Structures are given as structure tokens and as C-alpha cells.
Here is the input.
Amino acid sequence: MSVSALFTPKFKAYFQRTWILYMMIIPTLVLLAIFAYYPMYGTVIAFQKFNPGLGFFRSPWVGLANFERIFNSPTFPRVIGNTLIIAISQMVVGQVSAVLLALSLNEIRFIWFKRFMQNLLYMPHFLSWVVLGGILMEILSPFGLVGKAQTAMGLDPIIFLGSNDWFRPTLVLTNLWKEVGWGTIIYLAALTGIDPELYEAAAIDGANRFQRMWHISIPSILTTIILIASLNLGNVLQANFEQVFMLYNPTVYQTGDIIDTYVYRMGLIQAEFGISAAAGLFKSIIGFLLIIVSYKLADKYAGYKIF
Amino acid sequence: MIREKDWRNVAFDIFNHLFVFVLGLLALAPLVNLLAISLSSSAASMGGYVTFLPVDFTLENYTAIIKSDSVYRAFMVSVQRTVLGTILSMFITVITAYPLSKTAREFKGRNVFIWIIVFTMLFEGGLIPYFMVIRSLGLLNSIWALILPGVSTWSIILLMNFFKEVPRELEEAALLDGASHWQILWKIFIPLSTPALATLALFIAVFHWNSWFDGMIFMTDHANYPLQTYLRTVVIDMNSSTLQMDATTVDSLSQRSLRAAMIFISTVPIMVIYPFLQRYFVTGIKLGSVKG
Here is the structure.
């Protein structure tokens, strides 16, 4: 087919109608080219002895040396372990709690009370980790609210943010504070769709409240539960960077340092660009594969498609 | 709902209401404690006498912060980034979602474009390459470094799915009348999507207001910090000298009270729009569940 064949009257008519659609898509493509695809090309840093003066194109190549260094150091494998432990415990505890809270909210009879509590429990979701971190540092200090409560009970105040035993549980619990309320929304949406007659029929048959939850409520949100669990799988390398970064400090690096904080410190504090980019690329590649698998699972078991 | 007078049911209800009530109190307690500290005198908060009610009630912590030039500057950076960022992001979202909501027959290449966008949600270059790109573009210390990268891919996908639900007949009739796609977008699609657009705009605005990490790494001059980034240095460094007030004020005010007041001031805009946000939670959920 020659080029002139493209300029048939039919094509001209199509183009006259749709050229504006192509114009509309251009700004996004340009911005993504600069701020998403160019950095993707920039992952070549992971294979370079990167020098910012020379840039992506002229820095000397070092093959896999950066990867050899991170995997031979004791730090990076530990950081991967921390990431997985923190991310998985946050997801499991977070999802179980959100389901239980949604079931509980669904059983509340006074609508005004339910609304009020929902709005209260959703609020922390809209505050940044800087704000919540500031509040937590205050109340978790030995002289803060929690410390004083412990002293009042005759206990020694625990330094939650300075103890390798307590740091991870603190992350899980404080993340629950921020997100558990918000996490219930998707389940409550499914629960309010249930026909009340189902509950009434079950009550007449002598089912108690727990039996009704077990046989009616839970089956009706099961697809949603599976969906969220599948999508979570794609995020097991995302251990909530903003939260950890706000709350951690050198004393808890052993249990609290995650891939993202390691990438930040190596790259922007110690200027070990190659090391940092190698760790980042490792995370991106594994994360990419995990997301693909999680979408496949979500599609297979919950009929979910992003578009 | 079924009303049964069985004692087991009553016990269940009492326990369940109590359970939710206690959780609500636990979620609120830290905020109330901080609010009380921010409204207490320095002596009281340093001495650790404040729990849930202000001791020696005072507003001097708030007045000190409002008077601080550096807080004002950071606040204005945040306002600027939130307004500009939300407008730009919404404009880009709308004009991108519209063509993508067409079928691949009506808009050839649609599926390629959509994959170009979705791929950026699946794979990222990572922090260092990203930082180097911003740096090489000369955007360090520019507010555009906080605004331009904010193409919200998820809001494009959400709005695209929403646009797909607009009845095709409206568009076909308008096309027959000789309307262009540009006119159809602004005269038909936008007016029909106001709840969805309001939801997206509110969530994008909250995102911009709450962002701090980009400000921290891209603004090497602290004078360009947005408020949340600025707040982080105050909270982390536990050092109110960043507030740049004269020494006597700092001495007379408890750093603890000042920090608490600073935290609350930074959340004021969120608290102001929270009632509006609530109205759109449900729209947001529906938006997320509409599938093409």
C-alpha cells in the first residue's frame, strides 16, 4: 500500500472528525514521556557508575557490578525481608480488621450513630503522614499520652519508635488507625446492597446474629474480599514509604528499614546513585511481575478489569 | 431491620454499639490530646499536665505561628501548588479521558494510547532516575516540579469509565447536528459528569495539599517548601528554630505546644473541605466500580 492510498476520501473524512481527539491526548503523552518514560530509560543508572555531570548517556558502564554489591552486602537482603514482613502484616491485619469493622458497622441500628462513627473513623485517611507522624511522636513519647497511661498502670513506658521489638507492631497499629475506617467503605457498599428480606427469613428460621453474618453478610462480600486480597499481592514490596520514613530512625533500621527508605538514603543522602538505582530497579521489576499476577488473579476470581 | 426482644440480641446490640463507640474514641483521642496541648500554656504542656482538656488556656501558640513569616510563605506555596495542580490535573484528566472513552473503531489507536498510560501505573523508573530527570530539566526549586508530574493516571481511567456510561445517542445526535468533539465534551459530557468531576477534584486537591516528599527532595532551598514539607522539618527536627521567631518568643512558648499548634494549622484546609468530601465518598466508590 502506497502512502497516497492513506489519503482516500474516507480517511480524510475520518481525520476531519477526529483530529481533535488526537490533539486532546497529546498533553498526557508528552507529560508521561518526560516524567514517566524518561525516568524508565534512566534506570540505566543501575548499570553505570553514574556521574550526574555526564548524565544517563555518557556515564561509564559497569555491567552488573551494582547488583553484585547490593546482594553481597548484608543490608539489602535484610531490607527486602523487612519490606515483606511489614507490608504483608499491614495488609493481612488491615484487611481482616476492615472486614470485621464493616460487619460490625453494618449491624448498627441507629443510623445517626453509624454515620457519625463512620465520619470519625474515615477522617485520619485524609491527614498526611507528616501530621499523623507528628501526633504519634508526641503521644508515643514517654511523657506523652500513651507513656503516661503506662506509668499510671505501674508499667515502664515503652519506647515504641525506638525499639526493634515494637517498631513493626507500631507501624501496623498506626496504619490501622489511618486506614481501617476508609477500608470499610468498599465492604459497606456491598453490604448495603443485601436484600433485608434475606435477614428476616433467616431470623424466622431461627438463625442468630452471628449465623446471619456468617451465612448472609460474609458470602455477599466474599468477592470483594478476594478482589482486595488479590490486588494487595501486587503491593507486597510497597511497605508504606511515607509512614516508615516519618516514624523510623537509625535505632530501628534493623527491623524497620525498607527498600524505599534504603533507596532514598543510598541515593539522595550518600550519593551512591548506582547502588540506589539498582535497588530501585530490582523493586520495580519484581513489583511489575507481582502486579501482573495480582491483576490476573483479580480478573479470574473476582471478574475485575481496570479498563 | 428485624426487632427481636430476645436477650441474646439485646446483648449483641449493646456490645456491638459499645465496641464501635470505643474504637471511635480511640481514633479521636490522639487528636483531642494534641488539640489540648496546642491550647495550653508552655508550663502546663512541658510539665506534662495536659491530657484531653487545655490547661491554662491560651491562644498564644496559634498567634505566634500565624505571625511567623516562614509559616506564611510555606502556606502560600501549598495553596499555590494545590490550586494550580488541581486545575492542571483536572484539565488533563478531562481532555484525556474523553478520547479514550471512545471505542477503538471511533478513535483509532485508542488501545495503544491506553496501554501507554496504564504501563506507567505498572512500572516506574524509581526515585533516583526520576530525581535526575527533574534535576536535568532545571526544575529543582521550581513549583512546576510539584505540579507537572501530577498526571493522575488513575483519575483518567476512572473518568474514562464514567464517560463510557454517557448515552451514545446524545453524542450521535450532536455529531449529526455538526457539533465537533470539543463542543460535545464541554456541552454534553462535562455537565453530565459534575459529581464525578467534583469527586476527582477534591481527592486531587487533598493529594496535593498532603504531599510532602516531593517538596522535600526537589526544593533544595527551604524557602520553597510547601507547608507539609515545612511541617516535617518542625516535627522531625523537634526544633522550633525553623519557625524563625525572635528568641524571647521561642523561649516563652513551649516547643511542644507550638508543634501541636503547627500540626493543627496545617490540617485546617482538610477540615474545612471534609464535610464536602463526605458527600462524595459514595460517588467515589461508584466511580471506582464502574467498568467498561
User: Anything to note?
Assistant: Chain A touches chain B through 96 residues (CB under 8 Å).
